[in-house]
Amino acid sequence: KEAVVSTQSTGGAEPTRFFGDWLFGTFLSREQFDREQKNETAIVYPDQEELVKIVIAELQSKHKIDLKPSSGITLADIRYIVSDALQTFNEDKTGRADFALEALGGTVISIGCTETYYEGAPYASFMSVPLYRVPNPPNVALQPDITPGKCWAFKGHQGYMMIRLAQAVRVEGFSLEHLPKKLSLNNDLSSAPYKFTVRGVTRPGQDEPHSFGDFKYSDTGDSLQFFPIQKRSNIAYEIVELEIQSNHGNADYTCLYRIRVHGQPPKLS
User: Fold this and answer.
1) Does the pLDDT of residue 68 top 50, yes or no?
2) Burial of 154 (0-12, 13-18, 19+ CB in 10 A)
3) Distance between CA atoms of 85 and 56, rounded to whole angstroms?
4) Are 241 and 208 in contact, with CB atoms under 8 Å apart?
């Protein structure tokens, strides 16, 4: 209800993003997720008109809202919100280009003194005999797969990552994404990053990189959170530093699922 009704007053992207999170969080069931993990079958999401019908049924059954002029909600409103949410979801869930994406050329060039966390990682085996643990490498945080365990886990609550972007950009913001709470064991998000800083670097080892600001990832907000930069720069950076300063309470490790870097190439700025 909140996602649909608030569109009447704001008319912006926020209700659509909220609705998109609800939409795909609601219809990716645990059973569907388990089947996907076992590669038994592909997940088939409802098409747009099916989703419209589902939303109407949800409004009528749970919120007692009918599509009448007095309700302030029309079928056209719902179709617009569903269409916009699906479009944004298809555009990497943000509608913004990610210049840190590994598939486009982004890469992790340093993790400094940060130690990768090995405990709980799967074993490499030979003839069914486990030999040693193989944790996810840091570059997994530049990939689009957000499934349980598909993250870079590092020891403790402080970590560092230097990323070479696909190309130099005037940075405008960042998106940090963690596993949705309903897909985590016991709804535990204690390993999610909390306080973090992002800096622009013209060359590795630079004494005074440009700080874009200090940010906080909320464990009670959406799993995908966007952070506009707090301190602007006219320089197009090809390298950024991510420094995670704390997590949400896990004393052993922190999980970085995905970091996105958004901006504009100089010629488009």
Assistant:
1) yes
2) buried
3) 16
4) no
- Sign of the four-CA dihedral 42, 47, 50, 55: positive
Mean pLDDT of the residues in the chain: 76
Tell if the pTM clears 0.85, that is, is over it.
no
| DSSP for residue 2 | H
Q: Would you call 255 helix, strand, or coil by DSSP?
A: strand
Would you say residue 147 has pLDDT above 50? Answer: yes
The C-alpha angle 241, 141, 169, rounded to 5 degrees, equals 45
CA-to-CA dists, residue 189 to 157, 182, 192, 224, 262, angstroms: 13, 10, 5, 13, 25
pLDDT 10s digits, 149-208: 889 999 999 999 999 999 999 999 999 999 988 888 788 899 999 999 999 998 877 778
> CA 25 to CA 182: how far, in whole Å?
8
Decide: 153 and 253 in contact? Cβ < 8 Å: yes
For residues 78 and 95, give the distance between their C-alpha atoms in angstroms, rounded to a whole number: 20
Residue closest to 155 by CA, chosen among 28, 226, 251: 251
Residue 118 carries which DSSP code? -
